[in-house]
Input
Amino acid sequence: MIVFAGRAETVRGLDTLLAAFPLLREHVPDARLRLLLIPRPELPDIVARVRASGQAAAIELVTDPVPDLLAEFASAQVGAWPFKFDYTTSPPAMAVAEAMSVGLPVVATDVICVRAVLEPGVNGLAVPPADAQALASGLARVLLDEVMWRRFAQEGVRSVRDRLGWDRAAETTAAAYAAALAS
Output
């Protein structure tokens, strides 16, 4: 199961993900896609894209709030965040960080909001924005390579803990206060 969670907006690459999904299924025929969407004005267009994809039976579209997003991430095999542009959301992309925090390997685009969390090849895989073929290939690589999958799962948890956890926030805050008091 591949999961995406976020606003129903094509700027977040949902159109790219839907274009990549049939390409992915050529290599991983039993792949399924779960879209956890916050309704936005583009939702009807996204629903139409799902229906027109020829893959609707393998795509689950959820627009109701999910009671436990981390559990949703933990039950998937890979997360996909194919944002098209820098600053699609404020850095860091929280859904990406939350996915990594529960050991969900991530394939995302190399944009600033994702780059604040994702270390390509270390804790996830980065692909170019708006490139359905690259996204499909990246998702297939993670799904089919158990060693890579396990490494990204472990390193994702470690990197979120070490770079975004409360200990790191406390260190950063203490350093800022120390610098301010020293001047």
About this structure: Residues 2-182 form a domain with the Rossmann fold fold (CATH 3.40.50.2000).
